[in-house]
Design brief:
Beta-Lactamase; 3-stranded antiparallel sheet
């Protein structure tokens, strides 16, 4: 179930190409992840992510980590063709 604004968040993640979980599940842990999609139908089939202490994965690095994770997911998707 999505909370209010959840659909906007999903669209933002799709547009950006990666998601960020900053202490959403575990205090002190942050993760950045991206979907690996089926090459013909575009549906998610797996994911790739990095996680670590929030003191080391700070907002200053979200964009660079997100870009790297997104690129890795796209490379994997391409290799599935």
């Amino acid at each position: 179930m999505l909370c209010r604004g959840g659909y906007w968040q999903l669209e933002h993640i799709r547009t950006r190409g990666y998601s960020i979980n900053a202490e959403g599940l575990s205090i002190g842990i942050t993760a950045v992840g991206a979907a690996i999609v089926h090459p013909t139908n575009g549906r998610p089939v797996a994911a790739v992510s990095i996680s670590g202490p929030s003191s080391r994965i700070t907002p200053d690095y979200f964009e660079s980590y997100g870009s790297a994770i997104h690129n890795a997911a796209e490379s994997i998707t391409t290799s599935l063709m």
